[in-house]
Amino acid sequence: MICSLFLSDMMQYPSKLIEEAVEAFSQLPGVGRKTALRYVLHLLRQEESTIKKFGNIFARLKIELKYCKTCFNISDHDTCSICSNVKRDSTIVCVVEDIRDVMAIENTHQYTGTYHVLGGIISPMDGIGPNDLAIDPLIQRVASGSIKEIIMALSTTMEGDTTNFYIYKKLKDFNIPVSTIARGIAIGDEIEYADEITLGRSIINRVPYEKTFTTR
Q1: CA angle 161, 202, 208 (to 5 degrees)
Q2: In the chain, N or C: fewer CB atoms in 10 Å?
Q3: Gyration radius of the chain over CA positions
Q4: Number of C-alpha atoms within 13 angstroms, CB side, residue 122?
Q5: Cα 192 vs. chain centroid, distance in angstroms?
Q6: Closest Cα partner for 155 from 110, 111, 123?
Q7: Cα 105 vs. chain centroid, distance in angstroms?
Q8: CB 111 within 8 A of CB 203
Q9: What are phi and psi of 122, to 5 degrees?
Q10: For the domain 2-64, what is the CATH code?
Q11: Where are the beta strands (DSSP E) in the chain?
Q12: What is the pLDDT along the chain (216 residues), one digit of tens a residue?
């Protein structure tokens, strides 16, 4: 095993450009050098216009992509399509870790409120504290008086529970219901990997956050 890893690191490339391209692809999560090389060789077989289009798309992602000024969801505009949809219930806000969780919940077709994307969860081991997340803007949304319920839909991990509790303490004085998704999601599970039926039922059957203190 160690020998094969050593040989992989010592792989010789016929071109410095290929080596640099492999190095770039291998920076992606879950992509090793062999897979990265396969991607590079595949792109080399494509038309020049295809490769240019491929590169331009990723360049535009960084330059043109916006974050919704209300919920911090990824958007093409200053206000995302969910926050600007008059059919959504803007008085209910579902708090999630990132865009993947928004997509997972939307795929259930069971939720008609809006979201608040924190941009992560509290994780001292990774150097992520409350000030690194979009928690203060959430408190400001609640303080405006337009929110009637907060749904905590963070992953059921230690970090997720820590973030839940921190936000709950921040919201306690506002006297609005704070609920959490039902524990149909197994302890330790990430929201984005839950199947749509289980996740949908967890949203519908959400419970007051206070009740979770006695069930852990």
Answers
A1: 60
A2: N
A3: 21
A4: 13
A5: 8
A6: 123
A7: 11
A8: yes
A9: -65, 125
A10: 1.10.8.420
A11: 66-67, 74-75, 89-96, 113-117, 149-152, 178-180, 207-208
A12: 434 443 445 578 889 999 999 999 999 999 999 999 999 999 999 999 999 999 999 899 989 999 999 999 999 999 999 999 999 999 999 999 999 999 999 998 989 999 999 999 999 999 999 999 999 999 999 999 999 999 999 988 889 989 999 999 999 999 999 998 866 555 445 555 556 656 665 676 676 777 666 544
Q: What share of the chain is helix, strand, coil (3-state, %, to 5)?
A: 50, 15, 40
> Which of these CATH numbers, 1.10.287.3240, 3.30.750.24, 3.40.1360.10, 3.40.50.11190, describes 67-214?
3.40.1360.10
Claim: this prediction has a pTM higher than 0.70: yes
User: 113-117 and 149-152: which strand pairing?
Assistant: unpaired
**Packing angle, helices 2-9 and 33-44, rounded to 10:** 40
**Residue 208's beta-bridge partner residues?**
179
Q: How far is Cα 139 from Cα 91, in angstroms, rounded to an integer? A: 14
Can you tell me which residue has the tokens 């399509």? 81
Q: How far is CA 170 from the centre of its chain?
A: 22
Residues in the chain: 216
